[in-house]
Amino acid sequence: MVVYAAAMIAIGVVAFMLAPSGGKAATALVIPAVCAALMLVCAALTAKGIMSAKAGKGTGKPGMIGIHLGLLLPLLFALAFIGRALPATTAFLDAKKTLAGGNRAENVAAAVLDQAATSGQALEALSKDYLIASLWALSFLSLFACVALVSHRPKMVKVSRTDAAAT
């Protein structure tokens, strides 16, 4: 969970650095950071539950909450990132198709001249390539983390009632 959180922050930092000056660079950093913070809370709960169960103190419920939330959140994050990436990718491809033909300088010049008619939508969509790349990277990372966490999930230590009562 900690490695997944660190990777999300790294992707957010890269997206922040690649964002154009007019882009929403802070959002590209904040969203992965919040998701990473939630995963770190899950990791802390999991560690606390495992340690308390091994020591024979407590019920291990925080660990169970941490494990199950840690398994569920990457899937929810993946769905959210994919849900945001699909429309952005579609808009990017449509804008690219609109500006097809000629070299890039001619396309940008044509887009600037046509900006009044199209409200700059095509040019704005083309400037979001950093966003598309980071959203797809976060989506695939989240799917990979979901599969990895399910296949390598930590096992809770079972404490029998007699052992817990004896301590």
Notable characteristics:
elongated; mainly alpha; single chain; about 170 residues
Task: Give a quick summary of the entry.
The protein is built from eight helices and no strands. The protein is an all-alpha fold and 167 residues long. α2 (25-55) packs antiparallel against α3 and α3 (61-98) packs antiparallel against α7.
Protein model, in words:
With 167 residues, the protein is mainly α. The protein has one domain (2-166). Helices cover 81% and strands 0% of the residues. The chain has 8 helices and no strands. It has helices at 2-18, 25-55, 61-98, 104-113, 115-118, 121-126, 129-151, 161-166. Helix 1 (2-18) packs antiparallel against helix 2, helix 1 (2-18) runs antiparallel to helix 7 (129-151) and helix 2 packs antiparallel against helix 3. It is elongated.
